[in-house]
Amino acid sequence: MSGQTTPLHPFVLDMARAIRDAGGRALVVGGWVRDLVALRQTGRDGLPAGEEIDLEIYGLPADRLATSLGRFGWCGWSASRSRSTR
């Protein structure tokens, strides 16, 4: 899949850009990525079905993350966030 680009929902792109603009980095992870890889490995185009896309955020403390994503509505994160903000 190297070198390929996959269009994401504009909402996800806007969130990733907000994280980048705040100095962080957002990566798409989880089942959606697994399903995308499976599609590509079988030679099919398109995007996986799914109503949920997981973003993993690096480089922002929790308060800046909340501020950056506040305009998008509620955002939740797991306890693992504390490991990356110390």
Question: Could you give a quick summary of the protein structure above?
Answer:
The protein is α+β, with helices and mostly antiparallel strands.
Summarize this structure as a short list of keywords or feature phrases.
alpha+beta
Word description of this protein:
- The chain has one domain.
- The mean pLDDT is 82.
- Helices cover 41% and strands 12% of the residues.
- The protein has helices at 10-21, 31-41, 62-69, 81-84; strands at residues 25-29, 54-58.
- The protein has 86 residues and is α+β, with helices and mostly antiparallel strands.
- The chain is elongated and about 40 Å long.
- It has 4 helices and 2 strands; from the N terminus they run αβαβαα.
Radius of gyration: 14 Å
The average pLDDT score comes to: 82
Number of strands: 2
Helix and strand sequence: HEHEHH
Distance between the termini: 33 Å
List the helices and strands and how they pair.
Layout: H1 10-21, E1 25-29, H2 31-41, E2 54-58, H3 62-69, H4 81-84
Antiparallel strand pairs: 1-2
